[in-house]
Write a structure and sequence with these properties.
Number of strands: 6
Oligomer: single chain
Radius of gyration: 14 Å
Strand content: 25-35%
Helix content: 10-25%
Distance between the termini: 33 Å
Order of helices and strands: EEHEEEE
Strand order of the largest sheet: 3-4-6-5
Number of helices: 1
Structural class: mainly beta
Length: about 120
């Protein structure tokens, strides 16, 4: 089975925008991948369209996906507000790696972050 790729449009301004593609590892994280896929399309009536990067750590990452509060305290998943973590077998190895952000064990929702550099 081929892992799906999703595309997210990112804009710095009305004049500066681009698309980012992410491979979703359904073979390793089936619920997490399904959640991100549906949130990226808005297909289940909820999604990330129009949300912002609410946290940017220069030299590390950009975090977004809080489409309910827009400040890092909100968001939800297609399953319910939060769902159980699947596993942590893949690591943030460098630029372009997408990871789900959480607030502790079993708090996966809609927030994610994109690495902009290799973590130290």
């Amino acid at each position: 089975m081929v892992n799906p790729t999703v595309f997210c449009d990112v804009a710095l301004s009305k004049a500066s925008s681009w698309a980012i593609s992410f491979e979703l590892f359904t073979d390793k994280f089936p619920k997490t991948a399904e959640n991100f896929d549906f949130l990226s399309t808005g297909e289940k009536g909820v999604g990330c369209e129009g949300s912002c990067f609410h946290r940017i750590t220069p030299g590390f990452m950009c975090q977004g996906g809080d489409f309910t509060c827009h400040n890092g305290t909100g968001g939800k998943s297609i399953y319910r507000e939060k769902f159980d973590d699947e596993n942590c077998i893949l690591k943030q190895t460098g630029p372009g790696i997408l990871s789900m952000a959480n607030a502790g064990a079993s708090t996966t929702g809609s927030q994610s972050f994109v690495c902009t550099a290799k973590p130290e």
